[in-house]
Amino acid sequence: MYVELRHIHKSFDAVRAARDVSFGVDKGALAALLGPSGSGKTTILRMIAGLQNPDYGDILIDGLRVNDMPPSRRGIGFVFQNYALFRYMTVFDNIAFGLEVRKIPRAAVRDRVSELLALIGLEGFERRYPAQLSGGQKQRVAFARALAPNPSLLLLDEPFAAVDAKVRRELRLWLREMVGRLGVTSIFVTHDQDEAVEAADTIIVTNQGVVEQLGRPAELYKDPATPFVAGFIGDSTPLDDVTALKGFEGEAAPGAVRPEFIRILPPGEVGQYPNCLEEAVVEGILFRGAWLEVRLAVGGISLPARYPLEDPPLTVGDAVRVMIYRLYAFVGERVILRQNAGLRGMNSDYAYSI
Amino acid sequence: MASRLALGMGPNPSQASSPESPPHQGGVGAISGMKAGVSDHKGSSDEECGRSLPFRPGEAAPRRERGARGNPWVNGPLIAVSLAFILIMLIAPLAVVLVEAFSAGVSVYLDAVSDEYALRALVLTLKAASLAIAVNTLFGLTAAWAVTRYAFKGKSLLITVIDIPFSVSPVIAGLIFILTFGRMSWLHPWLDAFGISIVFDTPGIILATIFVTMPFVARELIPTLEARGTDEEQAAALMGAGFLTIFRRVTLPHIRWALIYGVILCSARALGEFGAVSVVSGRLRGKTNTLPLHVEILYNEYKFTAAFAVASLLATAALFILAARVAVEWRSRRAGGEDSGHVR
User: Fold this and answer.
1) What is the DSSP letter of A299?
2) Rounded to 10 degrees, what is the CA torsion of B224, B230, B231, B233?
3) Which tens digits make up the pLDDT trace of A195-248?
4) Which of A126, A153, A167, A270 gives the lowest tally of CB atoms within 10 Å of its CB?
5) Measured between CB atoms, which of A84, A88, A134 is closest to B235?
6) Contact B289, B117 (CB under 8 A)
7) Taking the mean position of all CA atoms in its chain, how far away is CA A310?
8) Considering only residues 207 to 246 of chain B, which have any Cβ-Cβ distance to chain A shorter than 8 Å?
């Protein structure tokens, strides 16, 4: 564990931003703190940086308790949400700032800045001011500025929030590659699950000041530990009672189902397991590029499902039959993956595996 | 009368505190509270909107365009009235001061200006003004920093208190010092024991000048610092920069024009202050007489030419300050343009 948080508590007046938060991030890993806004993820990041102090608990960096260490001594680089580039300094001076305050000789500063400019692909931009850069370029300068003093830990607060969607995708792949190449342990905060899934090795899901789950993206996706994670990750649709659906009779429980758990049988197809098929009506169809998103009315429940483009077309109002392979049932704070009863004992994994 | 007119050239306090007057706050000020980067972007896109699509209905079109499209039968008289008003109220009196000052010839003018009492008054005025500027710059920076960077009890009270000199009549400001440090005050015996004389002496004049010019710098800096946010300073601190480095390299470049503008307004008022100084001065010729007071004394002694000559010094100073102000406004607007432009 390179960074470790042990039983961290933090409150702002009545708001409890962190409640017994404990987790660790391995050396060289790229971790994402993922959660809805107000979940405490930014507070956790700022406490690691030393911009805020925890009320209780220990923060360890490289085995050393850093609670009482000023931010500048923790060996961290921090990328702010809006980059916080020094707007009255050139790109060169921005990147050089952290080195200059460390009284590093001029020649060494110049070398390091050119090296970083080459790394971020902005050679020739030395004399530009932040206002003359695009959002993506600013982001990269902020990244270079944070990396200049060779931090052992890089913290990024919503690093992609201020750029438009197209650049965002490009940037997160770039960040992933950069962090991988440099091997610097990094933690970034995001509220966007796609961002976390695509960029991070490890995701720490936070909600209302509590760490709900920590794991690899695929683990979170496949085995959500809490109802919150099951609902937050993936395009989950909450269900009041899973037993209302055919094949899931038994103990009543709330739950959630994902579009990829549902298959719409093309009109005319008989289906292999007729006794576990639901009758549904097509409520709406949305073209999503590689597939159609079909909104179904199953009994009184509205469910989204995916439908391949190559199957016979559907129209709104069509009566179709659907197969719900599996869903998540919530029993207390536990999440249980329930299989459709009609499929039990059969090779049911063919439709869903990660 | 002439001295009053010369004083009139000083800036209008209410104008200085109105949110519109400092042009360097431009687009950023209007949407203060937004994050710095966002506000920059907003500012520029609004500008562009104004430039390229001035007539889009329903949008906030620039005032200029709206005016130009108005009824010429309304616009013409309105412009004429404003121009006439400015001519009668501002330009003509200033011209009268200069004409009267030279009415008896250049030699009389030079005599009046180089008169010993006039020179002493000038020195005292400059002394009081420069001290007031120094003190209020320091105070303004400290107060603005405290108000915008820290949360503490009594913060809104402090902001209100900074404005007191604008809302209190200068005469009352002068009286405050007489009551605090004069013979009736319980402080007086104590001050007397140390041989400190404040009222009817130079310290009193300096204190009164500081009092009436106190809000200018702070008033300019607070909105500027507020609009900017603390991100950049936090970033610098995280990299290990000390307070002085952060102030010099990160904060100062941003507030530079607001600071200079505040100092200019402060100087104009300090040089021309009449009311408060008049109460505490005691008007001892050659000792506690400032230039505005000297003008009044000369005028009351029917030395009209001399009065106008000395008044012309103040008027000239006012014109220089006005020029400096225009230059700063122009320069800061350009800096603001660089700042928010080219966002793409």
Assistant:
1) T
2) 100
3) 898 889 999 999 999 999 999 999 998 899 999 999 888 888 889 888 888 888
4) A270
5) A84
6) yes
7) 32
8) 231-232, 234-242, 245
Q: A with B: how many residue pairs have Cβ under 8 Å apart?
A: 76
Q: What is the DSSP string of A184-215?
A: -EEEEEES-HHHHHHH-SEEEEEETTEEEEEE
- Where residue A286 falls (left for φ over 0; alpha for ψ -120 to 50; beta otherwise) is beta
Nearest to B171 by CA among B282, B292, B280, B276: B276
Residue A277, amino acid: L
C-beta separation of A145 from A113 below 8 A: no
CB < 8 Å from B in window 70-89 of A: 71-73, 76, 78, 80-89
Q: Which amino acid is at B41?
A: H
Burial-class residue B304 by CB neighbours within 10 Å (0-12, 13-18, 19+): middle
Return per-residue pLDDT of chain A as tens, 354 residues: 789 999 999 998 888 889 999 999 999 999 999 999 888 899 999 999 999 999 999 999 998 999 999 988 899 999 998 889 998 999 999 999 999 999 999 999 999 999 999 999 999 999 999 999 998 899 999 999 999 999 999 999 998 887 888 888 888 888 888 888 888 999 999 998 888 988 899 999 999 999 999 999 999 988 999 999 998 888 888 898 888 888 888 888 899 999 989 988 888 777 677 777 888 899 989 988 888 899 999 888 889 999 988 888 888 888 888 888 889 999 888 898 888 887 765 544 444 443
The secondary structure element, H or E, covering residue A60 is strand A56-61
- Evaluate whether A264 touches A304 at the Cβ level (below 8 Å): no
Q: What ipTM does this complex have?
A: 0.79
Please report the sign of the dihedral spanned by the C-alpha atoms of residue B84, residue B87, residue B93, residue B99: negative
Nearest to A87 among B237, B238, B339 (CB): B339
DSSP annotation of B163: T
pLDDT tens for each residue of B108-144: 899 888 889 999 999 999 999 999 999 999 999 999 9
Residue of A nearest to B235 (CA): A84
- Closest among A254, A260, A276 to A321, alpha carbons compared: A276
Closest CA to A275 of A320, A326, A321: A321
Given a contact cutoff of 8 angstroms between Cβ atoms, the answer to whether B277 and B291 are in contact is no
Q: How far is A155 from chain B (nearest CA, A)?
A: 12
Contact, B10 vs B325, CB < 8 A?
A: no
**How far does the CA of residue A185 sit from the closest CA of chain B (Å)?**
18
More confident residue, B308 or B48: B308
**Looking up tokens 């993922």, which residue turns up?**
A34
- Which residue type occupies A21? V
With residue B129 as reference, give the H or E element that holds it.
helix B116-149
The b/e string for B41-75 (b: 16+ C-beta within 10 A; e otherwise) is bbbbebbeebeeeeeeeeeebeeeeeeeeeeeeee
Give A133→chain B minimum CA distance, Å.
7
Q: Tell me the torsion sign for CA atoms A47, A52, A57, A61.
A: positive
- Quote the percentage of chain B above a pLDDT of 90: 29
| Structure tokens that stand for B21 in this block | 């007057």
Torsion A117-A122-A123-A128 (CA) sign: negative
Could you give the angle at the alpha carbon of B62 between the alpha carbons of B61 and B66, nearest 5°?
75
* Token pair belonging to B118: 């006039």
Beta bridge partners of A157: A189
- If you average pLDDT over residues B78-101, what whole number do you get? 91
